[in-house]
Design a protein that fits this description.
The chain is an all-alpha fold. The chain has helices spanning 13-23, 29-36, 40-47, 55-65, 69-89.
Length: 102
């Protein structure tokens, strides 16, 4: 039996921040920015996928909302890898094989 392996699309961690922390808790972007001691624009950029979750931001989120910074960094890394894989898939790379000349 053949099974087709399809990966679920990975969402940007900013979308997760918006749905699971901001909206789920009835908070505004301004309130979250104030709690994290960052600008409203910083949070807006993250939830609109214009900025990534940095290690410092991951620490801030974990400190204020609980959890660990690792969770946020793993979400960001998974998202980045999925985007990179799409780009790499479009170019032709040849695997290295010892003894083979170019």
């Amino acid at each position: 039996m053949n099974t087709i392996k399809r990966e679920m699309p990975v969402i940007h961690p900013g979308k997760f921040l918006l749905s699971e922390l901001i909206e789920a808790n009835g908070l505004t972007i301004s309130e979250v920015a104030e709690m994290l001691l960052v600008s409203r624009q910083t949070i807006s950029n993250i939830i609109n996928e214009k900025s990534d979750i940095s290690p410092e931001m991951a620490l801030r989120i974990a400190t204020v909302f609980g959890g660990t910074p690792d969770i946020w960094l793993r979400l960001q890394t998974k998202y980045d890898l999925q985007i990179a894989a799409k780009k790499v898939k479009q170019i032709k790379l040849t695997p290295y094989r010892p003894g083979r000349t170019a």
